[in-house]
Amino acid sequence: MSGLNSLKYEDIPSAWRLLPVGKVLLDTQYGTNEPAVEGGNTRVVGMKDIQEGKVLTADLTSLNLLDTEKERYLLNKGDLLINRTNSYDLVGKVGIFASDEQVAFASYLVRLTVDATQTCPEYLNHWLNGYLAQTVIKRIATRAISQANVNPTEFKKHCLVPLPPLQEQTSIAFLLSTWDLAIEKTERLIAAKEKRYLWLSKKYLFGDADQISNLAKKTKWFAVPDHWEIVKIGKIAKDVSKFNGTGENIPVLSCTKYDGLVDSLTYFDKQVFSLDTSTYKVVSRGQFAYATNHIEEGSIGYQDHYDKGLVSPMYTVFETNRDVDDSYLYKVLKSVVYLHIFRANTSSSVARRGSLRWKEFAKLPIPLPPIEEQKHIAAILTATRQEIDLLKKQAEAYRRQKRGLMQKLLTGEWRVKIDEEADNG
User: How far is CA 2 from CA 25, 138, 155, 164, in A?
Assistant: First the structure.
């Protein structure tokens, strides 16, 4: 049917059909062009609200629709939405609307009205979010400089869908939904733990509010108990500039907003650094590094991966003295308070916007409790962060399991047992 789709009749069970997706749709429709307004009479789904095969409705903007327009643009339970315009990585995302709420959809989305006599909407949603269908959608997409676009006509013609009998489709969708529920439950737990971590960070990194007295030490950003000190970073740390002049083969690290220093090749799954690393800076185990020109994003990390790593020559590397516990300091520097401090100190002038060199970085204030208290605080926060990291690994394991299961079930390699008597009835 199409050279774009790698799936062929011989790849699926003989009782299954293989049809262009347009054959299992009753209609496709573009969303409304009405602009978003505060306090509008209708909530509206946008591109950001399609996540992991679902249409989310918790955080929607609104717009004003005439009563005569609502029937056209309000979603129905079981409708699918495809993101027709976005960056190449995100274009073609599909989600199912599973709510009874009155919600419209925006113009960069296309509603897919499913023919329920041909396919189960949940089954089709899983298929369109799978690897084979997403590969076809990406091939169909036309690319501009910063965006890609999917033409619904081309999509309906070239994207093929394998169709088992309806009852088998329903069984497959139900089985995959158990993985979705496990992922959702884990994500909710992660969100709750992250919220608690932020609360604990605020409570401990800058002193318990109950300990703050009239004698408390203060900066314009925070106050600490009177038995703590507030010192400049330059008092507890010094910058280090050691270069890989011999071109030694040392792992290259990148600094991320959320995860700190990461192995560049593993994180990006490709080489994004120069082949010649002789000008790169060495960051040894136990040293810190931050992206000098992007510190306002929170791009700072602690090197505990290798005995030696390399970072871009545009990074700043520093190490601490014995007055501070590194784990405590790292958590302070990754806190929401310091994200604000970094932004304030990199936007004060046009010349320094986005950049914070060591000379200025060293002037920033640091809350400094006694060393044993630092270690105690770090231990509490580390334990909480480890719980979150384990939950994230568990969620990713569920996603991998679901992807593998989708590949087997949606192509018929593995079959789902169904009630044949009920099917014949």
Answer: 18, 15, 11, 20
